[in-house]
Design goal:
There is one protein chain. By secondary structure, this protein is α/β, with parallel strands linked by helices. The protein is 39% helix and 16% strand. The strands form three sheets. It has an eight-stranded parallel beta sheet with strand order 1-2-3-6-7-8-9-12. Strands 4-5 form a two-stranded antiparallel ribbon. A two-stranded antiparallel sheet has the order 10-11. Helix 7 links the parallel strand 7 and strand 8. The model has no long low-confidence stretch (mean pLDDT 94).
């Protein structure tokens, strides 16, 4: 169990923004951002069919197709099948994430977690990514934020369909690892309690950040660490609010979150710390965390992420955050 040994470093590149999340991104800008990540030494790339109805996979594949396949790790997701039929992207029903990819491709997306759909999704992703294999496959969004009160039924379909297919593919050596890619802790907690099948890791987005980590600390991360199941932290900037953006949880940030971030930034400034450094290094400090995968749509952001990862953060800064109850008292923090 575990995926840490598969990953080439603690910093990956999350490509959700390349699917035109929040805004329409020119192809040239998207390609330059992937190139910047490669040139900065990043060798783990995460994507999904959901990101712009295949747009992120297509854009990522166009750049990585010119790179030696053995030199990078690639993960994508299953749970959605992209059709040739079109629809209005802005009118899609996406649970709590409405309008997230309204600038993406107009291809219709079906939420489906059966065994057959999982195999089809993988084949389609291989085509869009222009590659012959995937390293890690995540089962995407089997949680309440997308499926509401029906999420447990969706999860059960995935458990008997996608989970078993991915475990078989891993055991056969077709993929190297599998797990869940979600924005909520509940489906991961359920999966950790299963006797079979057993995943290798999880991609948890937005739930282990400076702004939201209490629930993960209570049960999820201790259980994952005990079982040797590694976590990849997605969305370490909480949808952008911790990196100078305006979004939290994929929506406009509410006043209380803005105020909390401003206080964190003030403390960071007092200690000579960048807020991006604090966000990345906090997420990586937990022993269950294998990597962080922030997203970016501009080449300059990649350089900022690399610098943030290597920035020196004094212990006094973390103490100040604890003293003002801005982070949990029991949250692990990096050594000085």
């Amino acid at each position: 169990m575990g995926i840490k040994s598969l990953l080439p470093g603690s910093l990956g590149f999350g490509t959700a923004p390349l699917g035109n999340m929040f805004r329409a991104i020119p192809d040239e800008e998207a390609a330059a951002t992937v190139e910047a990540a490669w040139n900065a030494g990043i060798r783990y790339f995460d994507t999904a069919p959901f990101y712009g109805a295949g747009l992120s996979e297509i854009r990522l594949g166009e750049v990585l197709a010119g790179r030696p396949r053995d030199e990078f790790v690639l993960s994508t997701k299953v749970g959605r099948v992209i059709l040739d039929e079109t629809e209005d992207p802005a009118a899609r029903e996406l649970g709590e994430k409405g309008g997230l990819f309204e600038h993406g491709r107009p291809n219709k997306m079906l939420d489906v977690y059966t065994a057959d759909a999982t195999l089809r999704s993988i084949e389609d992703s291989l085509t869009r990514l222009r590659t012959d294999r995937l390293d890690i496959v995540w089962v995407h969004d089997v949680a309440q934020d997308f499926h509401g009160d029906n999420w447990l039924a969706v999860y059960e379909t995935a458990r008997t369909g996608a989970f078993r297919v991915l475990q078989r593919l891993r055991d056969e050596g077709v993929i190297k690892a599998w797990g869940l890619g979600v924005n909520r802790v509940e489906p991961i907690e359920l999966t950790l309690d299963l006797d079979e099948p057993k995943p290798d890791g999880f991609l948890l987005a937005g739930r282990y950040t400076l702004l939201d980590h209490d629930r993960s600390l209570q049960r999820l991360l201790p259980a994952a660490a005990e079982q040797g199941v590694d976590m990849v932290v997605g969305g370490p900037y909480s949808s952008g609010i911790l990196a100078g953006g305006q979004h939290f949880e994929y929506q406009k940030a509410p006043a209380e979150i803005i105020a909390k971030v401003e206080r964190m930034k003030a403390l960071a400034a007092e200690h000579g710390v960048g807020i991006k450094a604090a966000a990345l290094q906090f997420a990586l400090a937990h022993p269950a965390t294998a990597a962080v995968v922030p997203g970016a749509t501009r080449p300059s952001r990649i350089a900022e992420d690399v610098a943030a990862l290597n920035e020196s953060v004094p212990a006094a800064f973390w103490t100040a955050l604890r003293d003002e109850k801005l982070i949990a008292a029991d949250a692990p923090t990096p050594a000085a």
